[in-house]
Write a structure and sequence with these properties.
Layout lengths: L1 H17 L1 E8 L10 E4 L5 E3 L5 E6 L4 E5 L6 E4 L7 E2 L10 E4 L2 E4 L7 E5 H5 L6 H4 L7 E6 L7 E5 L12 E4 L2 E2 L12 E7 L2 H4 L10 E6 L8 E12 L11 H14 L23 H5 L3 E13 L3 E13 L6 E14 L4 E15 L12 H5 L17 E2 L2 E2 L10 H7 L1 E20 L2 E20 L11 E24 L3 E24 L21 E21 L3 E12 L8 E12 L1 H4 L6 E15 L17 E4 L3 E2 L5 E2 L2 E5 L8 E14 L4 E13 L2 E5 L8 E5 L3 E17 L3 E18 L4 E2 L4 E2 L7 E4 L1 E5 L6 E4 L5 E2 L9 E5 L4 E11 L2 E11 L2 E3 L1 H5 L46 E3 L2 E12 L2 H6 L4 E15 L20 E10 L1
Parallel strand pairs: 1-7, 13-16
Antiparallel strand pairs: 1-4, 2-3, 2-5, 5-6, 8-9, 10-15, 11-12, 13-14, 15-16, 17-18, 17-55, 18-19, 19-20, 20-21, 21-24, 22-23, 24-25, 25-26, 26-27, 27-28, 28-29, 29-30, 30-31, 31-36, 32-35, 33-34, 36-37, 37-40, 38-39, 40-41, 41-49, 42-43, 44-48, 45-46, 46-47, 49-50, 50-53, 51-52, 53-54, 54-55
Length: about 1000
Amino acid sequence: MKLKLSLLLLGLFSLAVQAQLVQGTVTDEDQIPLFGVTVLLEGSTAGTTTDFDGKYSISANQGDTLTFSYLGYTTRTIVVNASVLNVTLQEDLNELDEVVVVAYGTSTKKALTGALVSVKSEKITEQPQANLTNSLQGLAPGLQVLQGSGQPGEGAGLLIRGIGSLSAGVQPLIVVDGAVFNGGLSQLNPSDIESVNVLKDASSASIYGSRAANGVVLITTKTGKNQKTVYTINTEVGFTQNTNPNDFRVMNATEYVEYYREAMINSGIDPDDPTTGFYLPIDQTFDTDWVNEAFRAGSYKKYDFSVRGGNEKTSFFSSLGYTDQTGSIVGTDFERITGTLNLKHKANEKFDFGGKIQVNYRNSNDLISDTGRSGQLSGAYNTAPIEPIFATEDTNPALVGAGYNFDIPSNAQHNSVATAVLNENSSEIWSFNTNLDLGYNFTPKLRGEILANYYYFSTINKDKIGKLYLAETEGGNAFENRASGNTFNFIGSLAYNTTIGDDHEFELKSGFETTRERFSSLSIATRDFVFANLNDVGLAIGDITPDDINSGFDGLNLAGFFGRLKYAYKDKLFIEGSLRTDGASNFGEANRWGTFGAVGLSYVLTDDLFKNSEIVNNLKLRASYGTSGNYTLLNDDGNIDNFLWRDLYRLGVDNAIGPSDVLGGAAVRSPANPLLQWEKNEQLDVGLDFGLFNNRLSGSVDYFRRNSLDLLFNIPLSLTSGFGSQTVNSDAELLNTGYEVSLNAYILRNDDFYWRTDANVAFYDQEITSIPDEVIFNTSIWQEGGRSDNWYLQRYNGVDPATGDALYLDADGNSTPDYDSDESRVVVGQRTPDTYGSITNTFDYNGILLSFMFFYSYGSDGYFDLGEELNTDGANFSANQWAIALNRWQQPGDITDVPRAIINNPNGGFQSTRYLYDNSYIRLQNISLGYTLPQKVVANLGMSNISFRLTGQNLWTHSDFPGFDPRFTDSDSVQYPVPRTITFSANLSF
């Protein structure tokens, strides 16, 4: 007996010697500790979970296997080979169970019946952009980022699945943290964004009813987590510079003199005769590069501090951000300060509540003018290089201001360098956005929620022309506009969830929403100041007239009732239906209410057709159909107008009562149309989601058909009515169809290295299927069977080799020297592309991450307005010219596309396809190289994460479009080029 007891004790002692305490930290891919990760010893019942610091400890032997599992992350199994094992968990590659934000709630990807694209925060912050919209380029199939400006802080427009209206708004509805957001997206700090979800089809978006015709963009900001408090500091510094992919330039002094002397000689004028008024000697003192003076190397600085944490009851996220960007054009800059506090608290099992407040301050100096010759950029293109910047002995003393030369006939006495110094175009905006949300669980199956949102902004815009800026003659002038607005959004809802047996799940949600918008503005213009640098509007001594003061008011009320029913069968068949009724104050009583609805179905085919397949891991078929509305009305000025259903008046109108006497009063400026109603969209979507080869290849394919009905239209009225036009709902219909493909592939993947490729592509077509009457504009035509975004121009046919005159084609295709834009125009192209997309490659090796994205756009044409202005065959004397004019016709037999130069040419620079170019392009949109220090090193420094990143944006572009950026087309203004941006960032967490 003693022998057996001794042997037993010896065995236990041996096991104790072999066993060891294994410990470590479990983090996510951002090196944030994960609380509650399950750690199990395989082959036993032993296990533990990680604490708030992500730490664990467990007894195990060398060679034993530990499994680490956490909801939403891939389970990892690791063989014990050391006493310290730090583990990083990656998000589950099979994303079917991932929770995503949808309209008025959340869902899993598996349960989605509609077309939704989710963009995560890390994808957004990889791109150094002060504005969120510019960061979305290429990240979501079906979302098109429209022409944007390189102006610091300036955003871009968004289109979802094409242009869905002829005259009303085409921008998607923006929803931030569940509430409709009417502010500019430059107010949001991209570092505070958790995700951006794009709702593209009717099943996803129709529950927003009257506002969802153009799709919905759901923005979710960061909240607290059930984890140890983590402090994060992120710093980005860098520079910006102008890009010029096709070396666009204007003439230097030698070229300029040669060009205009030749133009004078061709016109029979002697350029060496001072008495002709066209005296232009060959020898010139100055060769000023005015365009070079307008550009500079800009800077980019961004600093963010955030704190995030919580426990099972209370979580919090707070951040402070500062962005400072000086533009690549002199005199432009942008500054933003943001502060965010987000709290959530679970009082008990029944009641929880939360609140968010985001405060924003923005200050910018913008281009002083993007049209004409007065701006620091537009003026630089036009000014003759033979003109000096500063005054000289030969300068007219009456045209010298602050030492600058204003004796510049080629630029109407505007000096673009002086513009940036002496003038101002600035804006200052304060805003805050606050949410209060309450939730109450009446029963485990019935939950009520309330969301109240209030948004307020106040802005001051100032335009000033200095007293010493002598191109103006009013002793300096100032214009100031003050505007403010607020939006109140309230949503109350009830959600009921239940199951019947093991196979059937139901979710019913119904609610009420109301929105109230108010906007007001006041502006004043003054002139004649005593001091040169004190020209605020209140310091003027000049007379103020009633025309110098203007004010405005706008408002909107909307109420809606909505309901949604979801059904799931065996977690593989999903059916969803939604219905919404909206009433809006911008329609008359007869048509104030409208009803919209949608139905969607999805079926996960994997278990039925590919169970235990080693090839197909996920296969889901989706289909949806529904209607939505567009309540954005536009007036004749192209601005939102919420009162077109009633008579609108203008005040201060001069009414003649005699040959010379007038009285002030009021007059109707637009006639009422009480029959106005929503535009309607009917949309069909069919999609397929798939995951293959252990989800190493995944993606989706979608086909959609979007028909827009009851389109708002301005019809001409008889002038005897006293009005030129009236807005009505017409019989016009617009059809958009297309395909969207998204692919995600792990080319290589193991414990230390992965190479992932993400690609998306979209194909679109558009047709006006019905229109009451043909409508012709300056450069486009709306007609049945055509597109709404076409180019309608006379065709340019080159230059007559014998005479050097420009040639055109008439409507029948015959060559003629006669320009006739009224009778000879034809459809020659389109403004939006047939297809666009991106491809991103990401490489990750032991903390070193390299990622780069190419974006392309194909099948559109752009009109080069600047080229038309600066290539006029001598018509725009004495403004500078585009250097392409060096290829002009000079003698009989010359073969060229540039006609001969004639001073003040009456036939020069006509609007035609001469200035229409294919603006398809491919761009290296972004490249990023990052390094994350090993966790062991970071822990020794008392930190939880240290990472660095070098990023380049807009590095290379290939396009046949001759301007600075192929996206800048169809505009009468000089666009601010999108610069190249290089930044270095450091991220520290502790």
